[in-house]
Design brief:
Elements (H helix, E strand, L loop, with lengths): L1 E2 L25 E4 L6 H15 L5 E6 L5 H14 L3 E7 L2 H10 L3 E5 L8 E8 L3 E2 L6 H14 L2 E2 L7 E3 L3 H11 L8 E6 L5 H8 L10 E6 L21 H10 L3 E5 L6 E4 L5 E2 L1 H18 L6 E5 L5 H8 L3 E5 L3 H11 L3 E3 L5 E3 L5 E2 L1 H13 L5 H6 L5 E2 L3 E4 L3 H12 L4 E4 L4 E5 L4 E7 L5 E8 L2 H15 L2
Parallel strand pairs: 3-4, 3-5, 4-9, 10-11, 10-12, 15-16, 15-17
Antiparallel strand pairs: 1-8, 2-6, 5-6, 6-7, 12-13, 13-14, 17-18, 18-19, 20-25, 21-25, 22-23, 23-24, 24-25
């Protein structure tokens, strides 16, 4: 028996594709629905997923976010995986960290359909091996692409002698119970919390984890903002990294007199924090705050020097605090596949990125915005000061944020900066891009070329705003000369 890959129902399908290089990225699959990703392609990817990872006869989990194309894609992936012998369990609507929970708790491979913070016309696939280990271009994604392209070229997916069945599983309650087992919020002072779900999956997971929808209530008054699941994103893009997408939350926190605001991206694996004044708390500060809690917990359990991972763009306040609290900071490149690999190698208890991805050993080294949010709520609710005062301890430096310069010859631009700055009083390293650090500790900056766009990205930090502004303006003038 064969499954004809053209049979997958998808009214948006364009001309059949057999080259998937436009949608297969370094860490996931992402494309425009009906152009570079459709149900026909997804069915072939589902079959390839089982083949490449050797999942015939094993459980294969598949779910998706609230994008209009996700239900069809879930069904198509399930058909392809079952045809090649996978025992498929569909999870239906899930956040990305729900998938990681399920892959970890059930020790099963899985995939979820999401394009994270991308606009409505996009969808994609994030995949994980059993135990929530990431699937990237270096750990199987290229092989899955090649196998899927072969099925598309043949226009058929041969079924194995014993095709798998397709069943349904709901993991939301188990996911919520597990997160609550990691951070106890029952004893904190009452908090008013505004949550902007951006019409994304946090509209489903927030009531389950922080509310009383599935579990007993917590001392939290949740003020919902855009909880309706709507993959057309009618209110604002589900990308809290862009300041304009935080404005509604900032205004709502002040209007409601809330203690804290939380903003999630579309698939709810990232969380951004707003203080009671409506001001953003930097992801570096959140990394430091959570690191302090995780170091204390690990030490109480007997670890002598708990490891904390941070990428090279996070504030230097992070490694300073980690060392102060008796942990060991480990600096890595930017990107979740690097972070997760180093988390595993080092046995790290926690890792954080400047982009608001937070990784936990107790969460199979995977990232979860909800668990990070719970740590912040526990820290805030465990003392009497407002969040602005609590966060100030973790933000002793002034950061530039990421500034892009459109440069064709990025290497030449970096060389010009290097010629200007390199010397005895400036250390230079090339872990990820090029980082320049003043020997006296007053400033550092990183220039990192984009792999996909003609951008050179500047991130910098200094002891005060005047120093930072002078540094920023000088470096950018050299870069853009």
């Amino acid at each position: 028996m064969t499954s004809n890959v053209n049979a997958a129902p998808d009214s948006t399908s364009a001309a059949p594709l057999t080259d998937l290089s436009a949608s297969f990225k370094a860490y996931d699959v992402r494309g425009i629905v009906g152009e570079t990703i459709d149900a026909r392609i997804v069915e072939a990817v589902g079959a390839a997923f089982v083949d490449v990872l050797g999942l015939a006869g094993q459980t294969v989990l598949v779910g998706g976010d609230m994008r209009p194309s996700s239900p069809d894609f879930i069904a198509a992936f399930a058909r392809g995986a079952a045809a090649r012998g996978g025992r498929v369990e569909t999870l239906d609507l899930i956040s990305t960290d729900e998938l990681y929970y399920a892959c970890g708790a059930l020790n099963a491979a899985g995939a979820t359909f999401t394009a994270s913070h991308n606009p409505a016309q996009y969808n994609g696939i994030k995949m994980a091996k059993p135990g929530a280990q990431p699937v990237s271009s270096e750990t199987g994604l290229k092989d899955i692409q090649a196998a899927a392209e072969a099925y598309l070229a043949a226009d058929a997916i041969p079924a194995v002698d014993e095709p798998g069945q397709i069943a349904v599983r709901d993991v939301l309650r188990d996911y919520a119970e597990y997160l609550r087992s990691l951070v106890d919020l029952n004893g904190i002072r009452p908090l008013k919390v505004v949550v902007d779900a951006g019409n994304g999956m946090a509209g489903l997971t927030t009531p389950a984890v922080l509310g009383d929808q599935l579990l007993p209530g917590l001392p939290l008054e949740i003020v919902p903002l855009y909880f309706e699941l709507d993959g057309t994103f009618p209110n604002h893009p589900a990308n809290p990294l862009e300041p304009e997408n935080l404005r509604d939350l900032q205004a709502a926190v002040v209007r409601h007199g809330a203690d804290i605001g939380l903003a999630f991206d579309g698939d709810a694996d990232r969380c951004f924090v707003i203080d009671e004044k409506g001001e953003p708390v930097s992801p570096s500060a959140i990394t430091a705050l959570v690191a302090r809690r995780e170091i204390a917990r690990a030490k109480a359990a007997g670890e002598s020097e708990p490891v904390i991972i941070h990428n090279l763009i996070t504030s230097r306040a992070v490694p300073e605090l980690v060392q102060h609290d008796g942990g060991r900071p480990v600096r890595t490149r930017v990107g979740h596949s690097f972070i997760k690999a180093v988390m595993a190698e080092e046995g790290a208890v926690f890792g954080g990125e400047h982009s608001a991805h937070y990784y936990f050993r107790d969460f199979w080294n995977a990232d979860t915005g909800m668990l990070a949010a719970m740590h912040v709520l526990a820290a805030l609710g465990g003392q009497d000061e407002p969040l602005s005062q609590l966060a100030a301890e973790y933000e002793p430096y002034v950061a530039s944020g990421e500034i892009n310069s459109e440069i064709e010859d990025k290497a030449a631009a970096v060389a010009r900066v290097r010629e200007e700055y390199e010397g005895d009083d400036v250390a230079v390293d090339e872990l990820d891009g090029t980082t320049f650090s003043a020997a006296d500790g007053t400033w550092w900056f990183n220039l990192r070329p984009s792999n996909t766009e003609p951008f050179l990205r500047f991130n910098g930090e200094a002891k005060d705003r005047e120093t930072l502004e002078q540094l920023r303006d000088t470096v950018l003038a050299i870069v853009r000369a």
